[in-house]
Amino acid sequence: MTVARDNINRINPLLSVVYGKIPAMEKAPESLSSDTKVLHDTVLGLQSKLSEKDHCIEQKDAQIDQLKQQYQHILEQFRLAQQKQFGKSSEVSNDQLALFNEAEQLLDEISNEETEQETVSYTRNKPKRTALPKDLPRETRVHDISDADKVCDGCGNDLHKMGEDKSEQLEFIPAQIKVIEHVRPKYSCRHCEQQGTDVTIKIAPVPVSVIPKSIATASLLSHIITNKYQYALPLYRQESLFKQYDIALSRQTMASWMLKLTPLLNRVYQHYRQNLLQQHVIHADETPLKVINEDKATSYMWVYCTGSDSSNTGDDKNKPPNLVLYDYQNSRAGQCARDYLKDFRGYLQVDGYAGYEKNEATLVGCWAHARRKFIDAQKTQAKGKTGKADWAINHIRKLYRIEAEIKQKTAQEKQMIRQERSVPLLDQLKVWLDKSALQVPPKSAVGKAIGYSLRQWPKLIRYIENGYLHIDNNRAERAVKPFVIGRKNWLFSNTASGAQASAMMYSLVETAKVNGLIPFDYLQYLLEQLPTNPENIDYLMPWNVVLTKD
To answer: Are strands 186-187 and 202-203 parallel, antiparallel or unpaired?
Structure first.
């Protein structure tokens, strides 16, 4: 609060100077002249002095108001910086905050888990353990008493089995690595050899391989890809893991494999993109990326997605496919999105970045970004105080509550409910925004939040036009998070070709996840099928693939 106190100390001397410079009212003469002209000149002189004083006071009042606004702006920035530095962010996952005390925290949370009632001689709450999957292989171990103990201690007769108690434990079996040795017997004709004629040696063709003349199998490559692009494990760490099995597999070799897979997997990626551009709604976002061998200091990874980020999204048979596509570009220019989306004219749901204006699509705004502005304004308020930001946040919360209720509805049902319930709330909010814009300084935190909402208003209310539209762009923000988490581990890409390969791998992994597939299984399936060069790869699309466990 030192900054705020210094600004107050600056204002107080100024006020004394301001009012000290205003000329004091001269004392009225003890006797007035009887001359009308003299009286007239006296009155005019007094009026002139009074007008000068009023003008001076107005100027000083305006200057005081300006200083107060500057002080309020500095105070808001101070509170916001204090909140960002020391406060709790609502967008930070609790799981991330508890990385180092996970065991202790989970132990403390047992009492908060779902409970069931168990009656012994009294009723108590018992933690309910999630059942282990029934399709896992099971090994039964029977712990029985000896035959000598199967005798009644009272009468000596044999005991009979009246039942049994069962409990389960989960055992982890480390990964197993084996070498597949391909043997191709050669055959020749001994009779032709004896006759001295040409001998045709017959041998089976070389088995189809993902990367010819390499030791990599589909399962090994799938393992490396998922470790890096799903679990954010850099190649140098994977190199150390293979060393534990006495396998010398360098990070350079694994990196070259990733690049060699690019032409093969690009066929699937381009098929994804064709499906994406055929949809009516696309979400987009972008995040910075450092590429060492690029002219620009900062490049960008763009993400485009459609559908949902979960395979369980209701019974709507006309819902779009679940797709997540990444695209590497060395710029954040709006032309990058235009080149990728080509002539797409559907709905494009984005944040307020002006670069998307270059597209021919109909832009849809993001209420999460608008709400975030008011949350920042709320943080600048004095502790325990409420203001306009609180009203806006509560009103936006009502819109989100409607969306939560209709999440499993069809698109037609969503549109109907929004027209009935969301439109009146939006109308109320618009009236409040127009009125509040005239009451608060535009450069204040709440003024900026109101200004953003008003500028984005046509895009913010567009989601009520179509049931397939979302109230915000969180779909794209969630899709870009896996890349951001991975970036914290490997920090940068070395070359543009490596960044493009990463974009493709992330697209395959994340698209598999949103379609309910295990990325390792799906990638292994792709790498087994693609080398056979199938004419039509529709059957390889994740929404058409059904993978069963062996």
So the answer is: antiparallel
**Model confidence pLDDT, tens digit, residues 396-406:** 999 999 999 99
- Tokens coding 108: 């403390």
Yes or no: say if 309 and 293 are a contact pair by the CB < 8 Å rule.
no
**Do 478 and 450 reside in the same domain of the chain?**
no
β-bridge mates for residue 325, sequence order: 304
Quote the strand ranges of 244-361, DSSP E.
281-289, 299-306, 323-329, 347-349
Q: Residue 530 has which token pair?
A: 């693609």
* 470 residue type, one letter: H
End-of-domain residue from the set 472, 495, 520: 472
CA distance 238 to 248: 11
Alpha helical stretches, state H, 438-495:
445-455, 457-460, 474-490
Give the residue carrying structure tokens 């109101």: 450
- Find, among 312, 239, 229, 307, the residue nearest to 498 by Cα: 229
Type of residue found at 333 = A
Write the single-letter amino acid at 544: N
Contact status, residue 131 vs residue 139, Cβ threshold 8 Å: no
Do 340 and 372 have their domain in common? no
Instruction: Please tell me the predicted confidence (pLDDT) of residue 339.
Output: 93
Q: Domain range spanning residue 422?
A: 368-472
Q: Which residues of the chain have pLDDT under 50?
A: 1-5, 7-8, 11, 14-15, 17-28, 91-107, 109-111, 113
pLDDT score for 175: 82
Which position has the token pair 């065991």? Answer: 103
How far is Cα 244 from Cα 242, in angstroms, rounded to an integer? 5
Q: For residue 89, what pLDDT is reported?
A: 60
Enter the tokens of residue 524: 């292994």
In 3D space, the residue among 379, 358, 299, 312 whose CA is nearest the CA of residue 83 turns out to be 379
Query: How many separate helices (H) and strands (E) can be counted in the chain?
Result: 18, 9
Cα dihedral 217, 218, 221, 227 sign: negative
Please tell me the predicted confidence (pLDDT) of residue 103: 45
Say what the pLDDT of residue 197 is. 84
Residues 229 and 344 in one domain: yes
Given a contact cutoff of 8 angstroms between Cβ atoms, the answer to whether 19 and 75 are in contact is no
**Cross-strand bridge partners of residue 284:** 304
Q: What are phi and psi of 158, to 5 degrees?
A: -70, 145
